[in-house]
Design goal:
By secondary structure, the protein is an alpha+beta fold. It is built from 19 helices and 17 strands. The termini are far apart. Belongs to the WSCD family.
Length: about 575
């Protein structure tokens, strides 16, 4: 029995070796045939030059990306250096290969690139390679290029408004934004960041240190890392938004110590709102205060927090009487309060992994804006939204588990997703408002409104039927599986911003000054709030939809109370 088994094993070994040998021989034969086909050319007589061959060689080089168009006008670059003498004397007229071995146009282009590169590398006496031309100050902007300035992230050179566009930033875009806010200078940094201000340091750095191109404008200089390309803003571009004017904030009682509360002042006969606002804008103050013929500039402070407005008639007296009174008119200037605009990643990885959880459309992006400006640290995201990243939410692109951000946005629910976090801020909004906001975002983006055809289509009722239950299950899951929660109602955050935000910041274990919180309140709107109302805004909810949503409201309200939280705000009560 063993002998036949041994013979079978020996036969199989021989067969395996034979198959291996035949496979290797087959592959080697195929390789030799391919090499032979690549080298063999069967002349069949001359042919008419093709479209590629009728072009001058320099044009061919341009077409395949070998040359920059500026190289053709450079006297230092000889045609022989670029493509070889034999290729420049006449168009490419190679004998036509046989139809079986016909070369493709791509093969000709590859050979052209190879020959140019070989000749270029072997010519040690030729001129150096032409690199890309350095960016230049924009010549189409209406502002005057001032120079390149150093910009320290801790002490900004231009301390006015700040905004980002990491995809479409241009010099004109930045100039218009600064001119609209009544700033004199517009500075661009790192190709995508725009800073505004009214004062510059006395000395600048070399122009060559500003070497980054603008993200949305090739060939224009937009600073570099820690370097600002500064333009003086002369006037708004045609078609841009109008220059902002002062906004009336109300009539307020004067603080006890005017000199301490109002750092800058102007006393002038017949002073107007425009004069006072312009004076304070030039000084980069967000508030302009009028008291008779006296103009003061200030920031919101604990001593002057703009919370207790008085009757406007108390400030409506003639200038002399008003000057002797204890009241003043307060106006918001176009400039931005910059005491809370600096942001960065956490210096060390966070030991506590915190979620900022909400149902879509509940104001998560707005809450992130408030948290970032209050704490000075970026927030992260479980997702990636390029629109948010382009507008300055730099934590959007950071990995959500990096722990370099103060908290992480999420709309997820379910036990596994929730238990990944050590704690969470649970942001809840009226489901009627949340559903409308999320439907608008899905149909028209962060700042747009859904068209009437979207509301009238089957898409809207289907959306409500599926998303209303998600609103309820999202809150219930976080209440059930969340390890440590802070429940925040969107409506309460809007109504009492500073106290609610102070509670959120304390939950994140960050110490923040009262002045910074007041700065956030002064800049509370951010860049992602829908402004105005739709021209046609009918009631989108049918009675059947209301019955469905009201049932979920009662369920969530009961669950909150069962977990020792206050119930939903009164305005959530079924309507």
């Amino acid at each position: 029995m063993a002998k036949p088994f041994f013979r079978l094993q020996k036969f199989l070994r021989r067969t395996q070796f034979l198959l291996f040998f035949l496979t290797a021989a087959y592959l080697m034969t195929g390789s030799l045939l391919l090499l032979q086909r690549a080298r063999v050319a069967l002349p069949q007589g001359p042919r008419a030059p093709g479209p590629l061959q009728t072009l001058p060689v320099a044009a061919v080089a341009l077409g395949v990306g070998l040359l920059d168009s500026r190289a053709l006008h450079d006297p230092r670059v000889s045609p022989e250096l670029l493509l070889g003498v034999d290729m420049l004397q006449s168009p490419l007229t190679r004998p036509r290969p046989g139809p079986r071995w016909l070369r493709s146009r791509n093969s000709e282009l590859r050979q052209l690139r190879r020959r140019w590169f070989h000749h270029f590398m072997s010519d040690s006496q030729g001129p150096p390679a032409l690199g890309p031309e350095a960016p230049r100050p924009a010549i189409h902007s209406r502002g005057t290029y001032v120079g390149c300035f150093s910009d320290d992230g801790h002490e900004r050179t231009l301390k006015g408004a700040v905004f980002y566009d990491l995809r479409k930033m241009t010099v004109s875009h930045c100039q218009d934004a600064c001119a609209e806010r009544s700033y004199v200078y517009a500075g661009l940094e790192a190709g995508a960041e725009c800073y505004c201000g009214n004062r510059l340091p006395a000395t600048s750095v070399g122009l060559e240190e500003c070497s980054h191109e603008c993200k949305g404008e090739k060939g224009s200089v937009c600073g570099a890392v820690d370097r600002l390309s500064v333009y003086r803003v002369d006037e708004l571009q045609p078609g841009s938004r109008k220059r902002r004017t002062a906004t009336y904030r109300g009539c307020f009682r004067l603080p006890e110590n005017i000199t301490h509360a109002f750092p800058s002042s102007l006393i002038q006969a017949n002073v107007t709102v425009e004069t006072c606002s312009g004076f304070c804008s030039q000084k980069e103050f967000p508030l302009a205060i009028l008291r008779g013929w006296e103009c003061y500039c200030a920031y919101p402070t604990p001593q002057f927090n703009l919370r207790d407005a008085m009757d406007s008639s108390l400030c409506g007296q003639d200038p002399e009487a008003q000057r002797l009174a204890e009241y003043c008119e307060v106006y918001q200037t176009p400039v931005q309060d910059t005491r809370c605009t600096d942001r960065r990643f956490l210096p060390n990885k966070s030991k506590v992994f915190v979620a900022l959880s909400s149902f879509p459309g509940a104001g998560n992006t707005w809450a992130r804006h408030l948290i970032e400006h209050a704490t000075g640290f970026y927030t992260g995201s479980y997702y990636f939204d390029g629109t948010l990243y382009n507008k300055g939410f730099k934590g959007e692109k950071d990995h959500w588990r990096s722990r370099r951000t103060i908290c992480v946005k999420t709309h997820e629910s379910g036990r596994r997703e929730i238990e990944m976090f050590d704690s969470a801020i649970l942001l809840i909004r009226n489901p009627y408002r949340s559903l409308v906001a999320e439907f608008n975002r899905k149909c028209a983006g962060h700042l747009g409104y859904a068209a009437d055809r979207n509301w009238k289509s089957k898409e809207w009722p289907d959306f409500v039927n599926s998303y209303a239950s998600w609103w309820s299950s999202h809150v219930l899951d976080w209440l059930k599986y969340g390890k440590r929660l802070l429940v925040v109602h969107y409506e309460e955050l809007r109504r009492s911003l500073v106290p609610t935000l102070r509670e959120m910041v304390a939950f994140l274990n960050v110490s923040v000054s009262e002045e910074r919180l007041l700065c956030v309140e002064n800049n509370k709107e951010g860049s992602f709030r829908r402004r105005g109302r739709r021209s046609h805004d009918p009631e989108p909810f049918t009675p059947e939809m209301k019955d469905l949503i009201n049932g979920y409201i009662r369920t969530v309200d009961k669950a909150l109370r069962d977990h020792n939280w206050t119930g939903l705000p009164r305005e959530y009560v079924p309507r």
